[in-house]
Amino acid sequence: MFQNIGELVVLFWRTLQALPQTWRQRRKVYDQLFEIGNASLLMACILSLFIGGVIALQTGPLLAERGLATLIGSVVGNSMCKELAPVMMSILIAGRIGSAMAAEIGSMRVYQEIDALRTMNINPVHYLVLPRLVAISCALPVLVIFSIQVGWMGGALVSVFNDRIGISFPAFFNNLRDTVDLVKIINGLFKSLVFAVVIGIVSCHQGLQTIGGPRGIGRSVTKAVVNSIVLILILDYFVTRFLMYFD
Amino acid sequence: MNAATSTPQGVRVTVRGLRRSFDGQPVLKGLNFEVARGEVFVVMGPSGSGKSVLLKHIIGLETPDDGEILIEGESIQSPGVMDKYRMAMVFQSGALFNSLTVGENVGLYLSEHQLKSSGEIARIVKEKLEIVGLKGQEDRNPSDLSGGMKKRVAIARALVIEPQLILYDEPTSELDPVIAVTIGEEILKLNRRIRVTSIVVSHDRDLAFGIADRIALLNDGQILAVGAPDEVKHHPHPRIQEFLTAAFNHNLERTST
């Protein structure tokens, strides 16, 4: 395990060192951005609508019974932007994009394409890892912005149309606006950036470590997704703790 | 493996005491041989004898446990040596990038290192594809090509580097005899045209005796013989004779029934 963590840190460091090469790899970054956005935006919106809705559904009636129904905007607003949007979007992207990254790089490794790159003096970190890491680090926070807004809408719809809550749209959003400020949204975006780096590095690392044939690729994909999700959930606690100093 | 600027000239390759083990299993057991400038040197041997591992060591994809590989007398482990000489490898599978077209594959080295303008790259790609008999195939995807065409694209990609040393890993495996002969002729033509040093790893006896200036016979990580094709053909070692004369026994069925 410690060897894996060490390798992840080394790969991350090498990718950071390669950052000045980003402009040269811009075409591949655009391709990856399109891939992530195209594959995930609709799914992210649907998921977020229902997450926002279910938070309102779970907490709204309890608050309404105590005469605190107007606080539902605050509950949905904060939980979406600080926690649920970054974590749920990261898990979604780990499943959809992290797996694709590990599979693509893994198959390139198995079919000697990475060896071919090295014989042409092309650094696989520059050619394969850098564009993917840059793209996912840009795309995930943007998806989280969408997710937060759609989640709020989901919460608002349930709060308005559920008989046991029954508050108005202005009441929901006024309460939300009172408690959610820009700092909280930036906190969520910072979390998503950290998670994006985790997904990118873990998935590319698993792809580069692939050995064997199709079974090896399958193993790498599973490991990439599982390890990314485990790391996201563990890091979520520590990043939240760290961000509390700025609240 | 740096940029080409002039007509390639083959390099001398020396392998000295090369040893390599994987998980405690020795694969290369102290190899010693030398390949002259501009020579076509074929390493033959049965499957699993360590041929591909040897090639990977020569191109720097693997690091030996012991011994060294010298190019023009300089160890490839020394800093800057791999960048000083232009080397290319044609992989057994072709190792073409499926996400790129044939043209992009062939021009990848030039485009990634930004050595030429896009117009110049297109011209060079066209020229190299023409050399390997694939004129006008630039826009096709590797997945649409036959095995022989993939190998020729891989050779064209190697040619773009204008190499001083080309390594071929099983260039005729999985090919029908006609295409295998075409590929063998391509290797020979290239060698004669640009005097590149060529190291070919193969278990194809026809290819080896058809194109080699010299042949090394590798068995179980050791070289059993090195010499001109005729010398190897008449070598008395029983394992060599077994390898070179292996054929179907047509009487087997009749005997068993």
Walk me through the structure:
The complex is a heterodimer of chains A (247) and B (257). By secondary structure, chain A is mainly α. Chain A is built from eight helices and no strands. The longest helix of chain A has 40 residues, at 26-65. The radius of gyration of chain A is 20 Å and the shape is elongated. The two termini of chain A are 34 Å apart. Chain B is α/β, with parallel strands linked by helices. Chain B has two domains: 9-86 and 165-246, P-loop containing nucleotide triphosphate hydrolases (Rossmann fold); 94-162, no CATH class. Helices cover 37% and strands 24% of the residues of chain B. In chain B, a hairpin with a 2-residue loop joins strand 9 and strand 10. Mean pLDDT of chain B is 87; it is low at 1-6. At the A-B interface, helix 4 of A face strand 6 and helix 3 of B.
List the SSEs and their pairings.
The complex is a heterodimer of chains A (247) and B (257).
Chain A: H1 2-17, H2 26-65, H3 72-110, H4 113-119, H5 124-161, H6 169-179, H7 182-208, H8 214-243
Helix pairs in contact in A: 1-5, 1-7, 2-3, 2-5, 3-5, 3-6, 3-7, 3-8, 5-7, 7-8
Chain B: E1 13-22, E2 25-35, E3 40-44, H1 51-58, E4 66-71, E5 74-75, H2 81-84, E6 87-90, H3 102-112, H4 118-131, H5 147-160, E7 165-169, H6 177-194, E8 197-202, H7 205-211, E9 214-219, E10 222-227, H8 229-233, H9 238-245, H10 252-256
Parallel strand pairs in B: 3-8, 3-9, 6-7, 7-8
Antiparallel strand pairs in B: 1-2, 1-4, 4-5, 9-10
Helix pairs in contact in B: 3-4, 3-5, 4-5
In short:
The complex is a heterodimer of chains A (247) and B (257). Chain A has 247 residues and is mainly α.
Query: At CATH's second level, what is the architecture of the largest domain in chain B?
Result: 3-Layer(aba) Sandwich
Task: List unreliable stretches of 5+ residues of chain A.
Answer: none
What can be said about the biggest beta sheet of chain B?
A: 6 strands, mixed
Could you report the average pLDDT of chain B, rounded to the nearest whole number? 87
Query: What fraction, in percent, of the residue positions of chain A are helical?
Result: over 70%
The fraction of residues in strands of chain B falls at 15-25%
Give the oligomer, counting copies of the same chain as homo and different chains as hetero: heterodimer
Tally of separate helices of chain A: 8
Secondary-structure element order of chain B, as H and E? EEEHEEHEHHHEHEHEEHHH
Instruction: Specify the structural class of chain A.
Output: mainly alpha
Compute the number of structural domains of chain B: 2
- Radius of gyration computed on alpha carbons of chain A: 20 Å
CATH fold-type name of the largest domain in chain B? Rossmann fold
Helix content of chain B: 25-40%
Mean pLDDT over all positions of chain A: 92
Head-to-tail CA distance between termini of chain B: 59 Å
Extract low-pLDDT stretches of chain B: 1-6
**DSSP E strands of chain A, number:** 0
For CATH, the homologous superfamily of the largest domain in chain B is named as P-loop containing nucleotide triphosphate hydrolases
Give the overall silhouette of chain A: elongated
Order of helices and strands of chain A: HHHHHHHH
